[in-house]
Structures are given as C-alpha cells and as structure tokens.
Design brief:
Length: about 110
C-alpha cells in the first residue's frame, strides 16, 4: 500500500452496510466519492449517476440502500453494492465509476 494515499474516513466512523460521501482529490479534480462499508470491506464510486450526471445521495452524504442496492435519489436507478452495476431504472446495464480504495490501520484510503 502506498502510504501517501489520501485518507478518506475512518472505518469505525462508517456503520456496516451504510455509505457516506466524501470529497476527494482525484486525477480529474475534486469529486464527491461514495464510500460503502460491508463488514471489513469497503467499496467506492464517484457520486455520479450515469443516467443524468446527478449525485445519488438524497441529502449530503445520505444514501438509500436496500436489499444490496444503492438507489439514486433523483430517478430511482438501482446499483448493486457489490459491483456498482445498474440493475434497474433508466440506466440499466451501466455502472457507477469505481474509485480504488483500501483499508489500512483503520483508515479508508484512496489509492493512487
């Protein structure tokens, strides 16, 4: 692991099965990133629905998650929490854009 990787949040601050949004400096500039915890594993995607380019959260950093699906608050598109694939709604067949992260020393870190 690259120790210069950016710290996004502490794993303990993110309840299991929930997601939050954090701002991160990515190669294309600052972006909102969804960080989702499932046990000790964490996945991350750009907070951007492929349907209309809008954020997925219904309030800043608050997401609708039900039965293994992350649901876009704007148009109801449903994305699997294991791979970000859209399985329902207006962008079925598309994917959220993954952001590489890892957990080290209790921190969720953005990988280069």
């Amino acid at each position: 692991m690259d120790m210069t990787a950016t710290q996004l949040c502490r794993l303990e601050d993110l309840p299991d099965g929930e997601a939050t949004a954090v701002d991160a400096l990515l190669p294309d500039g600052e972006e909102s990133v969804i960080v989702l915890r499932q046990g000790g594993a964490v996945r991350a995607w750009l907070n951007l629905c492929p349907h209309a380019g809008r954020r997925l959260d219904w309030a800043p950093g608050k997401f609708l998650i039900s039965q293994g699906l992350l649901i876009c608050a704007a148009h109801g598109a449903s994305f699997r929490t294991d791979d970000g694939a859209c399985v329902g709604g207006p962008c079925r067949g598309e994917h959220l854009r993954a952001v590489p992260v890892a957990v080290e020393d209790g921190w969720v870190r953005l990988l280069p």
